[in-house]
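Chapter summary example.
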Amino acid sequence: MPALYAGKRVGKPLMRGHTYNAMFNGKLVWPLDRDTVVSIRITDDKGRTLPKSLAVNGTLKLGAKATYADGHVGDLLTTNDVTFTSRDTSTATISGNTLTWRHGGTILVTATVNGFTSAAVSISAAYAPESIKVTDDSGKPIDNITLRVGESKNLKVTILPDAASQEYTASIKDVSLASVRQQ
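The structure predicted for these 183 residues follows.
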């Protein structure tokens, strides 16, 4: 909180290198070093380093550790005295300390302790496959296919959205009728 004197902002009063404090309405005008947050490290709820990426549609419990001006590191905060914020609520939301993904993408998360907001931490999640598009060599969509004995057809399979993993395994139920070769 800034201190004002005659309507102008003034810095902390220093005398011979020592900061002197003042009281206003029973409260200290300048917070003490032991109460002044200078940095925040966002962790999981156990105090471990956050993963850089998560599984599709996952959740993550967050925690934060604040470092204070006097050099001490505070206790792990998960819900009390800390507020977590997602910078992109269309990708992921935060309720309390639980981060919940809406869909794949990358988000920025911040934590606020005693009015100090941390630097943003980037976390990403893979996109969930939503549908499959099958086309022939010419790009024409294939809904069904009928082949005669000895005929073959090359098909292209695309997982949508394009940002989702394109890995798949082609199979056929009755291998006595046909075979599938995946390239």
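To summarize the output: The first strand starts at residue 3 and ends at 5.
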